[in-house]
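To whoever is covering the structure queue this week,

Two jobs came back overnight. Logging them here so there's a record in the thread.

Job A:
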Amino acid sequence: MFAMTGVVLLLTLFVVLVADQVSKHIARRALADDRQGGPLAFRLVANTRPGLVRIHESVALAIWGLAVAYAVVVVQFIDGSIIGGVAIGLAVGGATGNLVDRVTRGSVTDFVCLWRWPAFNLADAALVAAVPLAVGALL
């Protein structure tokens, strides 16, 4: 069962990472005019706030490697749950998407504005979606 969960985890991670990077690329090209309006708006924001990864790239990559190893261990403890694999894949994929931006661009590209919330991206949405799934997998 763990092998299947691992495949689901890696597939989810890959899909989230690719979708996040493609959507950010499109946003950087299409939203250069800084559009806004309504409860759901799209506005290009270069998030330069320090965040968790405002450190040297090699240290950030080492932390990422440890996080992935930790994710695999967590999947072991949730009895190879497919939902757990999706949750960890969402979390690691989202974190990886934002890490790629931080390391390659110096900032994270955010572009979705929802009501009064700060701008966010698909990687952030994946991280948020991972929490209830992980809790559900542990129950």
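Job B:
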Amino acid sequence: MNKLNLMFTSKASMNQRKGRTGRTSEGICLRLMSKEFFDDIIVDYPKPELIRCQLEKVILQAKISKIGEIFDIFEDLIEKPNDRNLSHSFKTLIDLGALTVPSLNYPSGNVTKIGFLMSIFPCDVKLTKMIITGYTLGVVDEVIAIASYINIDRDLFFNSFEQ
């Protein structure tokens, strides 16, 4: 599934979550961490979700919803993804066949049928392309097993003598 990387919450979010405690009447808020951890590790404000998520899916979904030219949408953002990540995402989508090559009519390319499928699959666009190719070649079950293994963050196998 498409997911965000796990990270600690921000100080702003923690202060918002404590709610009425200490604002409307006397009260305390207990956080299960040391003051040093709170002061040194926890960031004041989180990075925007758009900066942390996979841009390929965002680009495809924005183009399919036809809310405007994608370059204009990203230009209007307060905190936008860096240009290098954006161009890499477009190149990836073109290489995978999700977008057509940019032209005068479509400066950021046009969504292909495969691109539409990639936007609705609940996984990374590269894994989606792999699954679609596996289906085309008649080996979809094997490809889904391989894609599942690729998508996990930890080692599937462990040494039974160590654990």
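Note for Job B: The mean pLDDT is 81.

Please reply-all if you pick these up so we don't duplicate work.
Q.
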